[in-house]
Amino acid sequence: MADVALQPDRVGATQTPRKRSSLQKALKRKSTAAFLMTLPLIILITLLVLYPAFYSLHLATLNKSMQRFVGLGNFEFLFKRDTFWLVVKQSCIFAITAVVFKALIGFIVAHFVHNIPAKGQRKWRGMLLVPWVIPPAMSTLAWLWLFDPSYSAFNYTLSFFGIGPIPWTGDATWARFSVILVNVWYGAPFFMIMYLASLKSVPDQLYEAAAIDGANWWQRIWYVTLPMMRNIIAITTLFSLIVTFANFDIVRILTAGGPLDHTHIFATWAFRIGIEGSDIPLGASVSLFMVPILAVAAIFILRDVNKRGNES
Amino acid sequence: MSTVAIDKAAPTRTVKYGSMSRDRTWALRWSYFFLTLFAIFSLLPPIYMLITSLKSSAEISAATNPWWVFHPTLDNYIGLLTSNQFLRFFWNSALVSIFVVTITMLISVPAAFALARMRFWGSATLATGVFLTYLIPDSLLFIPLFKVFALFGDWTGIQLINRWYVLLLIYPTLTVPFCTWIMIGYFASIPKELDEAAIIDGASWFQTLTRIFIPVALPGLIAATIFAFTVSWAQFLYPLVFTTSTDQLVLPVGIITTLIKGDVFNWGQIMTGALLGAAPPLIIYAFLMDYYIAGLTAGATKG
């Protein structure tokens, strides 16, 4: 592009050859410097993200001892196993239910925080974000102890209301409920913070205009708040969908997939097969099933983030 | 404030405004009521950790009221803080986190600067690529990475599996993309006139970065540092896969694999360990909450 611009006034350019060449040199230096500055990043991503990602495609086509090429054999094997379909079903139930509840609770709590006088908001926000700050492995241990079969603090409390001991992690349905509950507890604060930031950016005039037009609270949310927050809701939900779908810590510590594989999701089952069962190719095949849904979510996030970037 | 004004108004007009302010008061009361409920729900597990950590094993197995400590004792804390094994976990975690934060900053700050300011061939694609890498979860990569490092050990004779320092290579894959991404946002929001002025004054690109960009984008830098620290402190899957010897474990994995012996759960110590493990991020959060939140919300936006 620089050449095209310079060619018409070649006469002028020849008069200052030194300046032009030094400019070119500087340009060259700048791009070289920029390349060098990004080089560690490029190496890191290539060697430790892209290479393993493609390597897992290769791994998935090998047999257990990793000496023979079996093509799609691992996938055929998985498709025939009931446990695999159970894991697919559970992953979807887990991710969708957890994300919906996280988004709902986050939305509601963000409104409550937004409602109270500004000087008290910091304190409440601070308390409500604590679940997101504690390392999930640590907080899940506390939940495991709250759900303990014989010393459960929840069952102790519920017994006063005449509600019998609940097998929090012992029964398939309850175990699924518990895993989702812990995930909602951990993830809802993130939604709350994102929604709160976005609520604060909605101009007050819009609400005033809506109030003058006689809108009730429901109409204000539906016609003012939601359209203004649409983008951030989409990004947060998709982002959380990825994180929840790929969750490992909570399920691993709380139930380790039990009872009878009824809470396994892709990540924990892949760990069970690939690392604990040392069938690395099969484990890699299991985790590859996460790719399609992650890819779809990623594409939509990217589109929304770019749109947001262009708006501002 | 509005209620005071309305009380002084003429009685004929109070009806409408009065009901509105009454609605407002009730909305406020309901807000506080539900916020209290949610705060209890949020703080329940950490508080329960604290309660249990103050109990002796005898009191826990006596199954008295779990929500109250009848004979508070610091035995669990003393036991853990004098156990070499636990201190080793803590030390490993601290070492890994500090190194990872340093590595992350050294990689992502120059890269973000180059991507935000020095347009070069493929820079836009690379920025998008960085964001996409951030969306790749650890549970997708742990199996191939494990195999890659095992093969690396076979080929070169350098054994990295089951050494804590292997985590220094792996954690940056989680922290660098996000930190680069939010730093790009912060750097891009700095007015161009500032670095143009520096260049005119004869500053090199490196000086522009260290004298202008880093000081101006310091809040973003702090947010990115906090993020890198909390991620490396909390990471559970990678150390679980890559380290097994007790002297190489980091805190989360150490607590789970050593304090749970078979079917015997020493809950007093487990809760104490969990609380001590949760303490560093909580302390940082308590002091730097605004930076923490800034980093959190910056992730989904450009700056």
Strand content of chain B: under 5%
* Distance between the amino and carboxyl termini of chain B: 37 Å
Q: What is the number of beta strands of chain A?
A: 0
User: How many domains of chain B?
Assistant: 2
User: What percentage of residues of chain A falls in helices of 4 or more residues?
Assistant: over 70%
The number of helices of chain A is: 16
Task: Name the largest protein-protein interface in this structure.
Answer: A-B, 96 and 97 residues
Note the gap between the termini of chain A. Answer: 28 Å
CATH architecture of the largest domain in chain B: Orthogonal Bundle
Looking at the structure, what is the overall shape of chain B?
Answer: globular
Cα-atom Rg of chain A, whole angstroms? Answer: 27 Å
The count of DSSP E runs of length 2 or more, i.e. the number of strands of chain B, is 2
The rounded Rg of chain B comes to 26 Å
Commentary on this structure:
The complex is a heterodimer of chains A (about 300) and B (about 300). Chain A has about 300 residues and is mainly α. Chain A is about 80% helix and about 0% strand. Chain A is globular, with a radius of gyration of 27 Å. In chain A, about 40% of the residues are buried. Chain B has about 300 residues and is an all-alpha fold. Chain B has 2 domains: about 25-75, no CATH class; about 75-295, Orthogonal Bundle (MetI-like fold), CATH 1.10.3720.10. Chain B has 16 helices and 2 strands. A two-stranded antiparallel sheet of chain B has the order 1-2. The longest helix of chain B has about 45 residues, at about 10-55. Chain B is globular, with a radius of gyration of 26 Å. Chain B starts with a helix and ends in a 5-residue tail after the last helix. Classes of the chains: A mainly alpha (about 300), B mainly alpha (about 300). At the A-B interface, helix 3, helix 5, helix 6, helix 7 and helix 8 of A face helix 2, helix 5, helix 6, helix 7 and helix 9 of B.
